[in-house]
Amino acid sequence: MQQVPAIVDGRFKLFESHAILIYLACSFPGVADHWYPADVSKRAKIHSVLDWHHSNLRRGAMLYVINTTLAPALGFPLNLQAAAKAEKTLDASLSKIESIWLKGSGKFLLGSNQPSIADLSLVCEIMQLEVLDENDRARILGPYSKVQEWIENTKNATKLHFDDVHGVLYRAKVKLRTQRENAQSQPSLKAALQSKM
Ligand SMILES: N[C@@H](CCC(=O)N[C@@H](CS)C(=O)NCC(=O)O)C(=O)O
């Protein structure tokens, strides 16, 4: 399929992030139950969040990041109109997470005190906002204090691994910030970048 993420486990190949998370949680001994509970009702709730994620949070976050930041690197122009539309989807999604799935005193989604694969998937989606201009990122996440706290809780619950898997993202963040700073200090470079918009 030429799609990432994908895994190979022996002769078994699999793509689609949520299918991979479920496979890893079920097929390796010793994975704690809270990641993907055996309880059918808890599992169903996790599936509900994962399915919702794809057409809401992922759509908003991915299209916003591409249309404001990544498009030139992918070979097409920035599109601020598409970005504005994506920001509405992203904002509505963050609002839903804050008011519904982080309702109550649990540290993680669905009122849980321990993380599940849904926390991993949704927090990783939000992490791509790291590559944005700082002001844009602050404007988007600023109103959602519970979301910000939950991101920190998920980072702490997966310490070391979290920064390890986000290494590529952190490096891209530095590179893109340097490009923005250079564009601001060099008008000719700014014009060249704008010509791609
Ligand atoms: N629904 C997929 C989305 C993954 C996805 O969008 N992958 C992109 C890169 S971030 C990709 O591989 N695109 C290439 C393609 O679809 O051909 C998942 O959750 O794994």
Automatic annotation (TrEMBL):
InterPro entries: Glutathione-S-Trfase_C-like (IPR010987), Glutathione-S-Trfase_C_sf (IPR036282), Glutathione_S-Trfase_N (IPR004045), GSTT1/2/3 (IPR043377), Thioredoxin-like_sf (IPR036249)
Keyword Transferase: yes
UniProtKB keywords: Detoxification, Transferase
Major enzyme class: transferase
Domain GST C-terminal: 39-197
Domain GST N-terminal, first and last residues per copy: 1-32
Entry's family note: Belongs to the GST superfamily. Theta family.
GO molecular function, one term: glutathione transferase activity
EC number(s) on file: 2.5.1.18
UniProt cross-references to SUPFAM superfamilies, sorted A to Z: GST C-terminal domain-like, Thioredoxin-like
The UniProt record lists the keyword Transferase: yes
Name of the protein in its database record: glutathione transferase
GO biological process: toxin catabolic process
Pfam families: GST_C_2, GST_N
Catalytic activity as recorded in UniProt: RX + glutathione = an S-substituted glutathione + a halide anion + H(+)
